[in-house]
Description:
3 domains, Butyryl-Coa Dehydrogenase, subunit A, domain 1, 4-stranded antiparallel sheet
Amino acid sequence: MTLSEHRTELIPYDLAGMDHHLTADERAVRSTVRAVCEELIDPYIGDWFERGQIDDLPGLASELGKIGLFGMHLHGYGCAGMSAVDYGLACMELEASDSGIRSLVSVQGSLAMFAIHRWGSEEQKEHWLPTMAAGTAIGCFGLTEPDVGSDPSAMKTRARRDGSDWVLDGSKMWITNGSIADLAIVWAGTDDGIRGFVVPTTTAGFSANAIRHKMSLRASVTSELILEGVRLPSTAMLPDAVGLRGPLSCLNQARYGILWGALGAGRASFEAALDYAGQRTQFGRPITGFQLTQQKLVDMSIELSKGGLLALAIGRAKDEGRLHPVQISVGKLNNVRAALDICRTARTILGANGISLEYPVIRHMNNLESVLTYEGTSEMHTLIIGQALTGQPAFQ
Ligand code: TGC
Ligand code: FAD
């Protein structure tokens, strides 16, 4: 049997056969999320990105909540209690539609909900998690500041005691969902180290401004948070999170989702390029017939295939409770970098059409520039892995 007779058995973005290692239930989760994306997101996303606005964001959030996407890997309190692999597959399908939609889900579930679920009091969990799981309350996660990004230990936002209250002053920058949020998880320095606070966004002294002029993640709300004498009761503090390990534990969750999600954006761009190349004729033949185009398609396909196996290996390790955070850095660094390269290459295959929002490629490419930077830049993940390999921190 020739290779071309085998062709129909191969999935172009999964030549290594990762799909074979998924259970029927996992495939069903993936299909469900894909179908929802095809109905609720794909017909509109190009327009949302171009206008920098999602129409009826509360309506979309509530639809995503209905199928259990918010905090889907958390247990209890109205959360779906699915596996890490299920959650990863969902992120992949969401990001095949748009990184901004995956961000909406990641920040809600992996950052804001996880912070409360892992570090919050019983009262905080019961108060916030069910409505957040339903998508009727939206959360954001404020770690980054205008002068503090990769090194959150240097944060300037402060929380001071005033009687039994806490009073927060400072600002946070580049905060996803910030100006649409009902609650903000705010990390602040105290005399006892960095602590987390659940801040209802209606609290006096709290304000949020949307950041404009973005050329990336345009179908996602990104904001500055201002905290001016924000007075909170003592019950607003996350009681069990002390020090940087509080926020970093949340980042582990979100980075895990991203290492799957980025492959979705890469896959969508690869598929668009493969389809386009088969139809585009130059010099009297489809451009798929040129060796240089085939080289690009082959390289993209192999990177997607390897990235899928890496994501699944990391997902299985997470489900089995043997995942090391450094492995998350390996997945985030590799898969985002690979997906961005795939999008850039796909864009060249589309020629001039590659720069048009009529096709998804430039949107994914621009989005992945943010994904490469947020949740730890590629340099930070390189240094995390470097430290693990050598025992020597090279951050400063
Ligand atoms: P270091 O001294 O190494 O550690 C401080 C404490 O944290 C613990 N720790 C971790 N805990 C859990 N998970 C991890 N991955 C952890 N890494 C470290 C560590 O054990 C220690 O605990 P303790 O109890 O002994 O105090 O910390 P460092 O200050 O040297 O920093 C290390 C570094 C640079 C790697 C870290 O600061 C870092 O990852 N920086 C990047 C910042 C970042 O990723 N920001 C993301 C903001 S959120 C966001 O971007 C959302 S994007 C929207 C979306 O997701 O869609
Ligand atoms: P900097 O830390 O200033 O880094 C600038 C450059 O210097 C980078 O290339 C970096 O890798 C490099 N660099 C820094 N230190 C070193 C070093 N020691 N060695 C080598 N190179 C170094 N944050 C939140 O808290 N919540 C959110 O919801 C959130 N959402 C975001 C959404 C978007 C669309 C974007 C773009 C960002 C978001 N962020 C969020 C912020 C994001 O986490 C930060 O942008 C990121 O951590 C990097 O910080 P910075 O931009 O300040 O860059």
